[in-house]
Amino acid sequence: MGMGWAIHIHLIAAIAWIGGSIFMFALGVSMRDKKAQKAVYPHIGPIFGYFEVVALMFLLGTGSYMITDYGLIELLFTDYHSDVVDALRTKLWIVLVLLIVTVIHFVIALKTNNKERTPLQHFVSRASSMLIFFLNLFVLHYAMVIRDIL
Fold it and tell me: What is the rounded distance in angstroms from the CA atom of residue 143 to the CA atom of residue 10?
């Protein structure tokens, strides 16, 4: 059967999604000057956010396609166990948490762009950004585990 085109699009989207989150994480950690942050983020944030949403849509679409194409969708919802199915289940649970955290982060970013954030919004934004960064590394790990098995 083979994954063909879907794996290529999935990998390009993963590079965009994970690379983008690493870049923004590094930018957030390294930019201490509040004036510089206020100059940069209102311009970069919206472009980055929409770019990442497109990458995420491609990831979800191609991932769903490959799960279905490999006949794994039925197995995910049973008590069947194998190295691939167990790794895929774990990866998908992490992806679900990642999606929830991303939505929270995105809502705060959209709501507060060019505005002063409350301390809670600032904390949740920073914490969600850090969580997205680390969850991406776990998703990437399980993607490599699955690819090694297949």
Answer: 11
Report whether 8 contacts 57 (CB < 8 A): no
Burial track 75-108 (b if 16+ CB lie within 10 A, e otherwise): beeeeeeeebbebbbbbeebbeebeebbebbbeb
- DSSP output for 48-90: HHHHHHHHHHHHHHHHHHHHHHTT-HHHHTSS---HHHHHHHH
pLDDT in tens, 116-147: 889 999 899 889 989 999 999 999 999 999 98
- Beta carbons of 75 and 85 less than 8 angstroms apart: yes
Q: Would you place residue 1 in the very low, low, confident or very high pLDDT band (cuts 50, 70, 90)?
A: very low
CA 106/CA 100 separation, integer angstroms: 10
List own/partner pairs for 46-51 with CB under 8 A and 24 or more apart: 46/113, 48/20, 48/24, 49/106, 49/109, 49/110, 51/16, 51/20
CA separation, residue 75 to residues 32, 58, 59, 139, 144 (Å): 48, 23, 21, 20, 20
pLDDT of residue 150: 79
Residue 108, pLDDT above cutoff 80: yes
